[in-house]
């Protein structure tokens, strides 16, 4: 029997950003009505939403969920030093079960901070999918691949098997992409194999591109072109690409990205912490690119809080351009919702509150001093809200956070397991 939930007297922002107080009706996994709800029947759960603001579930377009196990392990370093000397050696010891618990830890944090969809690139992806399936979150999963080393061909084969086994599973909550790590770990011949596989499967690609100045400089030295130009030449950009970072992209690169409809995952927190630079987001948006927001892994952020990324996005680009209008609150919020959905190929399912879309809904508790006075809900959401305001989270029509508590995850057991495994992995 499909369950019906009515969110009674909830506040929400319409597509035209008008504030409305109304009811949202959820039947099974979908939003079926926005407007005064019909009389509740026996099987209907009515939730009083006085003083609650409903927003679409937030969409994290780039992370490595299980890296939550490495949070606070290696900080204040540049990307390549951090990867080569701290992260990759520690990741070499990861087991499938570690990745399961690391991913579940990340999912617990994401759900409690209002994220209902994430795009992940990592190893041991069947265990990632298991954590996604049982927690109720939505995810776009990619088995990370590097073309250097003994596992290069095996990870291609694993990616193919993972795609066949998990694409469109968990009630359609899981979709699968291919995940070549980056141009500096995937040489051209390897990327050509990835492109062939993507064409065979009709799969899209999630890849790190142009994250640091050093990456772009080395790419010019090695191939005489930028990472974007190289990817274009190799056919990678013809597969449908979600490109993480794009910090050091030129005007010419942006034109290519526009032509190839590359979608960008902007990760302001990680880019700031790793001192990678500031992505030209205003230029990318002005060129018509789809730019979503991501946290990157919790080891380089050091949290998975998308409300924080919204705020960072709105602030960072203002101070960088000295133009307060460059990314207004509304744009930053859209980047974490509607644009994020588009970036992940899920715009027909999530990212907005509208009848017919999946019921991925976050209720923020506005009954706090930092929500007073309420001149402008969008402004409050972008500049004043914080993770502690996330009261209730509904993912695919199911309540996964209720009164700030997880309903699908045993948090106490999870923290014990995650802490124990993290200590072993980092030799502590
Ligand atoms: C091959 S699985 C993903 C791989 O990416 C590493 N990683 C984490 N953060 C970053 C980043 O900001 N840039 C590049 N690579 C990153 C992660 O440790 C995994 O090894
Ligand atoms: Zn990353």
From TrEMBL:
GO terms for molecular function: 5'-methylthioadenosine deaminase activity; metal ion binding; S-adenosylhomocysteine deaminase activity. Keywords: Hydrolase, Metal-binding, Zinc. Substrate binds at residues 91, 143, 181, 211, 296. Binds 1 zinc ion per subunit. Residues 54-400 form the Amidohydrolase-related domain. Its EC number is 3.5.4.28, 3.5.4.31. Its cofactor is Zn(2+). Zn(2+) binds at residues 62, 64, 208, 296. It is an enzyme of class 3 (hydrolase). The keyword Cell membrane does not apply. It catalyses: S-methyl-5'-thioadenosine + H2O + H(+) = S-methyl-5'-thioinosine + NH4(+); S-adenosyl-L-homocysteine + H2O + H(+) = S-inosyl-L-homocysteine + NH4(+). It holds the Pfam family Amidohydro_1. InterPro entries: Amidohydro-rel, Deaminase_MtaD/DadD, Metal-dep_hydrolase_composite, Metal_Hydrolase, MTA/SAH_deaminase. Catalyzes the deamination of 5-methylthioadenosine and S-adenosyl-L-homocysteine into 5-methylthioinosine and S-inosyl-L-homocysteine, respectively. Is also able to deaminate adenosine. Belongs to the metallo-dependent hydrolases superfamily. MTA/SAH deaminase family. PANTHER family: AMIDOHYDROLASE-RELATED DOMAIN-CONTAINING PROTEIN (PTHR43794:SF11), AMINOHYDROLASE SSNA-RELATED (PTHR43794). This is 5-methylthioadenosine/S-adenosylhomocysteine deaminase. It comes from Propionispora hippei DSM 15287. The lineage of its organism: Bacteria, Bacillati, Bacillota, Negativicutes, Selenomonadales. The gene is mtaD.
């Amino acid at each position: 029997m499909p369950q019906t939930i009515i969110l009674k007297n909830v506040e929400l922002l319409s597509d035209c950003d008008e504030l409305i107080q109304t009811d949202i009706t959820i039947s099974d996994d979908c939003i079926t009505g926005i407007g005064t709800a019909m009389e509740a029947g026996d099987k209907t759960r009515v939730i009083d939403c006085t003083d609650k603001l409903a927003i679409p579930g937030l969409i994290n377009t780039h992370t490595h969920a299980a890296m939550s196990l490495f949070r606070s392990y290696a900080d204040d370093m540049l990307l390549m030093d951090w990867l080569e000397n701290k992260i990759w050696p520690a990741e070499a010891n990861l087991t499938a079960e570690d990745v399961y618990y690391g991913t579940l830890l990340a999912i617990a944090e994401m759900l409690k901070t209002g994220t209902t969809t994430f795009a992940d690139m990592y190893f041991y992806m069947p265990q990632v999918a298991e954590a996604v399936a049982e927690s109720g979150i939505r995810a776009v999963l990619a088995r990370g691949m590097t073309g250097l080393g003994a596992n290069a061909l095996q990870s291609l084969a694993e990616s193919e098997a993972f795609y066949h086994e998990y694409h469109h599973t968990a009630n359609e909550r899981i979709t699968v992409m291919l995940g070549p790590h980056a141009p500096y770990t995937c040489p051209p011949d390897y990327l050509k194999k990835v492109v062939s596989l993507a064409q065979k499967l009709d799969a899209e690609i999630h890849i790190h591109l142009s994250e640091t100045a050093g990456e772009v400089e080395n790419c010019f030295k090695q191939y005489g072109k930028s990472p974007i130009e190289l990817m274009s030449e190799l056919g990678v950009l013809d597969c449908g690409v979600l490109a993480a970072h794009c910090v050091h992209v030129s005007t010419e690169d942006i034109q290519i990205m526009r032509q190839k409809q590359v979608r960008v995952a902007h990760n302001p927190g990680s880019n700031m912490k790793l001192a990678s630079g500031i992505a030209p987001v205003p230029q990318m948006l002005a060129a018509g690119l789809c730019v979503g927001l991501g946290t990157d892994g919790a080891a380089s952020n050091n949290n998975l809080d998308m409300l924080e990324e919204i705020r960072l996005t709105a602030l960072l680009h203002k101070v960088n351009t000295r133009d307060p209008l460059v990314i207004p609150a509304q744009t930053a919020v859209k980047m974490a919702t509607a644009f994020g959905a588009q970036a992940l190929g899920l715009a027909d399912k999530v990212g907005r509150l509208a009848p017919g879309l999946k019921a991925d809904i976050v209720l923020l508790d506005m009954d706090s001093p930092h929500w007073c006075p309420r001149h402008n809900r969008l402004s409050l959401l972008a500049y004043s809200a914080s993770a502690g305001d996330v009261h209730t989270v509904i993912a695919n029509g199911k309540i996964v956070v209720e009164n700030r508590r997880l309903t699908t995850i045993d948090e106490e057991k999870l923290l014990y397991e995650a802490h124990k495994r993290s200590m072993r992995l980092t030799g502590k």
